Every structure is written in C-alpha cells, then in structure tokens.
Amino acid sequence: MYTLTRDEVRAYLKRIGISEIGAPTLLYLAELHKAHVKHLSWQTLDIFGGKPAPIGFKESVALILNRRSGYCFHLNGAFGVLLHSLGYRVNLHRAGVQPMGAEPRINSFHLGLTVDFSDEEAGRGTWIAEVGLGDMPFEPLPLRHGTFIQEPYTYKVTESGVAADGWRLEHDHLASFPGVDYAPDVLTDLEEFKPNHEFYIRSEDSPWFNKFLIRQRNETEGNELRGCIWRKRNASGLEKTELHTKSQWFEVLAGVFDEQLVNYSKPEREELWKRVEAAHSDWQKIKERQEKAGSLPTG
C-alpha cells in the first residue's frame, strides 16, 4: 500500500481537522474515523459533473488534499493509506452494498477496511473502519456480533449469509439501504475494484451516472442532498427541505457538506445547477402524475 510522507500525513490530518499526529491506538483511530466522516462527504458529484477521478491510492489521497471528496473507493482507499502511514495494520476487503429490494451480495462494488490490533494493544482484535458510505458508522466498530447505537442510527454486526467467515454490517431500518456484506479474504491492491469503478463512472446503467447525491453525518445527525431535496435525520426524526434557488443549493453544499466545488469553474457550477434543477423538475412531474394515479415514486 502507498505510504504518505510526513508532510502529506500532516496535510491530510489538517484537511479533516486534526492538528497532531498520534500513536496508532484505538482511541486515535476513533478520533480519525469521526473526523473523516464529519469533514469528507460521500458524493457522486464528479461522476454527475463529468469529471470522475481514478481510484488509485495516490489519486484518492490527492482528492482529499485538494479539498475534494469522492465515494466509497476514494474515501475508504485514502483512509486506508492514512492509517497505514500512521502505523496501523490495515486490511482491504471485497464487499457489496445491498440496495433496497435486492438480495445481499459481495460483488466488489464496495471496498471494505478493517484494522487489526494485537492482544497486547489497547483495542485488541479487529475493528471495522467504514468511512465510505456517508451515513454509516461515525466511529469504528468491533468486528464481533452485536448492536451498536450511534445516533441517529443503530447498526448491527452479524455473520454474512453470502460469504463463509464473512461479516455483515446492517444499517438502521430507516436508512437508505439495508446493509453491507464483507468477504474475509485480504487484498493487497485495488485491481479487483477498478472495472466496477469504470462501470459506475461510464455506464448509463450505473446508479450514479446521472444522479447528484451527497451524504454526510456527524455526532448527532445524518444529512443527504439528493438533487434539490435536503434530508436531515436526527433523534427528533426526519426533516425534509426542498431547495428552490441556486443560492440555497450552493449554500447547503458549502455549509452542510463542506463542498466548495473547487474543481469547477463558474460556468461549470452554473451547468451543474441547471442539470440538477432540470432533473428535479422532471421528478416533480413524475411525482404529480403518480400522485394522480394513486402511487408515489421512491427517492
């Protein structure tokens, strides 16, 4: 795995709001994990915007250092590099996200991470590090069966039903997908995932090819911007806001998701908004037709 220089480590930590390099302990892992999830949103921005980034370790780290972000391959890949460079024992795993209405699967459309601690170290055993799903755990989870509450969501770690000796991370029943399954075999590179990344960024059958979606969570709430609909979930429930103007949309992107669109010129930003607004208008028309017919679209 690619190893960062000391200066790169410090720049990465600064990007996620951490000032000091710490020892590779469980306590520091938790601090890193929380900061990463809070400051780096999961997003389809560059796919939607026609500027998809490669998923190589160096390229994913470069995204982070240049105040950009990405989706699972970028986020978990870059975080794995950071942890490795800080002295953690990091493992890469094949994984698969289960969409609503589908069966569990491990199809290498998701990259999983675990971190090993020896029996002599604080933390002991193996921990799940999952910063690549937007609304998944805020803190690392022990790789053992159990239920874990991290508001506003509840997660479960169970045995995988699709991989011998694998594990499953079940999402909250109110969340956008049921869960993720992970294979136990450890990979040494990202070659397994590159064809799937190409599908995500090039194919019109990709779920992300024409969808603007960005997710972020923090200590108490989860946020999602899907087109022009901003959803915020906390202990009080779900709050849904429709963003009607360009200024509102850009303000939420920057203020809630810390997305400054640094890789987009002013004309490109205008084009992004026009495409999002047009897609939202189309969705509203479909919604109105289905409401008249007695059914509502999902999403």
TrEMBL record:
Gene Ontology MF, one: acetyltransferase activity
Keyword field: Transferase
SUPFAM superfamilies in UniProt: Cysteine proteinases
A Pfam family matched in the record: Acetyltransf_2
Superkingdom classification of source: Bacteria
Similarity annotation: Belongs to the arylamine N-acetyltransferase family.
Name the UniProt record assigns to this protein: Arylamine N-acetyltransferase
Organism whose genome encodes this protein: Paenibacillus chitinolyticus
